[in-house]
């Protein structure tokens, strides 16, 4: 039996609000003890993870870190804040500081979520069709577990993304968002700790509208943010046919 087993005997009450914290895998996190005075004046207080104690303190003795956690956790001097090192996804959960004696009282509570950074999404262009004044194509933005497909229509040098889904939330909790910006199509994959984008320039792609067209002049480019359309001064112009 370890010195930590006894805490199961207590039932706790508390009303502190939960602070939600997101951390990237491999990073460190400092959890702050907000009620330092209460901790200092208590006979026994704890830091817990999902209800199990891993730091125990009976002031004025210094805090004791549970053997299984030594090396991964550091209790900072004076403040009693704890530094969690090199976090893994399995470290996600509820971290609570509470005083046990003389009174059960929750001092601080954190809901910690450890996430991997997102990987860069892929952006594909297909189904291209073009005429002298318009160019239509489809853009697909994809991650390992999700994708969005959107039709884009460029009429008279102005491109519009069709209504319909422009963003999805993936199974892993990341968001995928595809939109037009200036002369580009942007696909942005993001979660709470990171984001990554893939950009395809329409002007580059416009060259491939048809072999009858080429990009003649690029810019200036303006954006109509109110309608999420792109005004494309760089567009395809017809090549003269040589006989
Ligand atoms: C703890 O406090 C430090 C310094 O004020 C701050 O940078 C850090 O984000 C806090 N930790 C949490 C989990 O809020
Ligand atoms: C902690 O955060 C996770 C992920 O956002 C959520 O599913 C869970 O309900 C939260 N738990 C508490 C006690 O707030
Ligand atoms: C592009 O789509 C519009 C609207 O559906 C259509 O009127 C136009 O003919 C299409 N252009 C080409 C080149 O397919
Ligand atoms: C991508 O999404 C994240 C999170 O919503 C945001 O902070 C970032 O600015 C976005 N990037 C672009 C280029 O829009
Ligand atoms: C921008 O879009 C709005 C809404 O579709 C439209 O009323 C406005 O004329 C557009 N502005 C330009 C400069 O194209």
From TrEMBL:
<keyword id="KW-0732">Signal</keyword>
<feature type="signal peptide">
    <location>
        <begin position="1"/>
        <end position="17"/>
    </location>
</feature>
<dbReference type="InterPro" id="IPR015631">
    <property type="entry name" value="CD2/SLAM_rcpt"/>
</dbReference>
<protein>
    <recommendedName>
        <fullName>Immunoglobulin subtype domain-containing protein</fullName>
    </recommendedName>
</protein>
<dbReference type="InterPro" id="IPR036179">
    <property type="entry name" value="Ig-like_dom_sf"/>
</dbReference>
<keyword id="KW-0325">Glycoprotein</keyword>
<dbReference type="GO" id="GO:0016020">
    <property type="term" value="C:membrane"/>
</dbReference>
<dbReference type="InterPro" id="IPR013783">
    <property type="entry name" value="Ig-like_fold"/>
</dbReference>
<keyword id="KW-0472">Membrane</keyword>
């Amino acid at each position: 039996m370890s010195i930590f087993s006894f805490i199961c005997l207590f039932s706790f009450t508390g009303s502190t609000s939960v602070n939600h914290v997101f951390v990237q895998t491999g990073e460190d996190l400092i959890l702050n003890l907000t009620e330092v005075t209460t901790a200092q004046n208590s006979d026994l207080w704890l830091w817990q993870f999902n209800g199990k104690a891993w730091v125990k303190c009976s002031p004025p003795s210094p805090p004791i870190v549970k053997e299984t956690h030594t090396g991964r956790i550091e209790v900072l001097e004076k403040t009693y804040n704890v530094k969690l090192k090199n976090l893994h996804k399995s470290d996600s959960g509820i971290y609570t500081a509470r005083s046990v004696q003389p009174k059960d009282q929750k001092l601080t509570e954190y809901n910690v979520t450890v996430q991997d950074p997102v990987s860069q999404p892929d952006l594909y262009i297909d189904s291209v069709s073009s005429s002298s004044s318009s160019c239509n194509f489809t853009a697909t933005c994809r991650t390992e577990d999700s994708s969005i497909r959107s039709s884009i229509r460029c009429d008279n040098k102005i491109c519009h993304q069709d209504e319909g889904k422009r963003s999805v939330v993936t199974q892993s909790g990341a968001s995928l968002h595809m939109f037009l910006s200036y002369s580009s199509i942007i696909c942005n994959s993001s979660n709470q700790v990171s984001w990554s984008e893939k950009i395809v320039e329409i002007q580059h792609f416009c060259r491939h509208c048809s072999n009858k067209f080429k990009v003649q002049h690029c810019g200036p480019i303006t954006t109509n943010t109110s309608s999420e359309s792109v005004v494309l001064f760089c567009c395809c112009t017809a090549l003269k046919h040589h006989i």
